[in-house]
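I am writing to request your help with a piece of structural work I have in hand. Here, with my thanks, is the record as I have it:
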Amino acid sequence: MPVTEVTTDAEALTMTLTAEFPAPIERLWEVFTDPRQLERFWGPPGYPATFTSFDLTVGGRARYHMTSPQGEKYHATWEFLELDGPRSFTVLDSFADEDGKVNEELPTSRMTLVFEPTATGSRLESVTRFTSAEALEQVVAMGMIEGTTMAMDQLGRVLEGLRAYAQGKGTQTEILDDTHVRITRLIEGPIDLVWRAHHEPELLKKWMLGPDGWSLVECEVASEVGAKYRYVWEPGEGVEGERFGFDGEALLIEPPRRAVTTEHMTGTDYPGTLNDLNLEEEDGATLITLFIEYPDKETRDIVLATGMTEGMESSYARLEGVLAAV
């Protein structure tokens, strides 16, 4: 993980994050000052950022929002105070409303990002200064340390490029905390086609099968927010196992990049999950990132122990074959 340290200083009213990256400072400057690259990592898992304006000049402003799995938007603004590319920049970071007006009821802070060369790449030091100890305590209680750390941990794949980050690694499962898991898989194919393969029944039935010998026999897709879906699998002749299914509701649909659904095993009282599907394309390949939120650590561990990752890899391998034939 690139983040090496996060500290707070109640006397200096600061929060300081340090991270190391195998890239030159010029590359770090580029990703932090290009809104299309910045929004690929700035929001923590489950709360991706969208920059709607970005005036990279002293006195200029940037506006962005983070979208929760339920579709709620949390708005913020940057005012650029100092620019010294590619070494550093300073912004006034404020919470805002949907029109970009600063929310005076929440803390405004001064954030300075400094990029320094190292023997293996570069070091990022982010120092955020607050106006009071109460303001510092407030943002820490809101999860700023955890959110910023997870956001910075996503920067590596942007710096590397998707192929270097994920190609040849198959389906990867990462435990983020007691209730959250991130699953990634690079698929050869454009994002629009990968989106279709996740939302068109005739394509889903060709690849979302799990282990060999199983079939997706019922496939009702949720095509809009609030709609219900239902999938049912059954084993073929000579294959061990019992028919089972999942159902749920679409909470957020943003084609072709994001879909959030609930998931529950049909006919059981097992706790459900929240599944946050994100697609990202680069150089003709699409990275599938699935964030799963479990109700508790016990449920998380039970599900992971079922061989879920291996079953998903079998399906994703089929998906590449399906896309090549479309």
